[in-house]
Amino acid sequence: MKIKRREIFAGSAVAVLMMTTAACGSSDNYGGKAPAVQPVGDSKQVGAGSGYGDPYGSGAGGGSGAVPAGAAGKTGSAGQLKVSEIAGLGPGVTDSEGFTLYRFDKDTPKPPKSNCEGDCAAAWPAVSADDASVSAGIDAALLGSVDRADGTKQLTLAGWPVYRYSKDAKAGDSFGEGVGGTWHVLGPGGKPAGASKGSGAEKEEKKEEKPAAEAKGGELTAVQNAQLGTLVEDAEGKTLYRFDKDSAWPMKIGCVDACTDTWKPAKPVDKNKVNGIAPELIGKVKRPDGSEQLTIDCWPVYTFTGDKEPGDTTGHNNKGLWFAITDKGKKAKVVG
């Protein structure tokens, strides 16, 4: 027997939501009053210890504030810098032990200056400039140093201060990529690793992969990704994502406060201006702050600040919680 779905109204308690089903994404829901939602737990709890509670991804927003083992204890020299293959990004710089090295967009290279101090420096240990050298693929002339506020000298590459990430537990980890939309794996020339992706011939290849329907334009478009299948992009070509700490039914939103600095809630669209997505799957939901957010098959959707070029999917499978959303509202498959 099918249960008739009803619209959720503002102020409904979570307990009531769990006992009532709703035609989320239907024309009735979209055209009427948007359902109110409650964040998962108290807003102060969201992101505690998860890397969303503070702008540096340090987890300082909750819990004991303890920094995990691994790169956290590594504050010394990088030794001989090496070029290593970073999954999903291509060539990136690692230290002599294979730990991934990073740069911070809020620093400056000319003149070199670090803007990561205090709690930030606990999450992102500065790499000492002592005894640094390079191996093949890195120009020794790019090495330098900058004086930190505590008087120590930090290694720079092409002027950019160099860091490790405390949550990288072992050589080869690169969990710092894209944190806060401002931290990136360091490329051999000082730019973010993978910064050149999507340029030249690869850009042309992406254009050829897009279905002809995209030429018509639209506020949302279903596109073909060679690895992940059919994904949804907004009008600017940004990939849309869903979050496992959200819930489609009952409606809950788990990405609030500092989380939205990295994952931007997508704005509602005209469901009659979408390409390749069933209009009845398009809806909207009212967030705890009163703003409205786009939903696809009841799932709130977001863009990722770490995606730099149209068609990028660097947020997919981020922390095992964020996934590119398909034209059906499902999570795109995880490759590898």
From TrEMBL:
Signal peptide coordinates: 1-25
List, as start-end ranges, the regions of compositional bias called Gly residues. Answer: 182-192
Pfam families from the UniProt entry? Lipoprotein_15
Residues crossing the lipid bilayer are none
Q: Any coiled-coil ranges, and where? A: none
Instruction: List the residue ranges of the region (Disordered).
Output: 182-221
Record field: compositional bias (Basic and acidic residues): 200-217
**PROSITE patterns cross-referenced by the UniProt entry:** PROKAR_LIPOPROTEIN
Q: Known InterPro entries for this protein?
A: Lipoprotein_repeat, SCO0930-like
Give UniProt keywords alphabetically: Lipoprotein, Signal
**Which NCBIfam families does this chain map to?**
SCO0930_lipo
Q: What is this protein called?
A: Lipoprotein
- The organism named in the record is Streptomyces nojiriensis
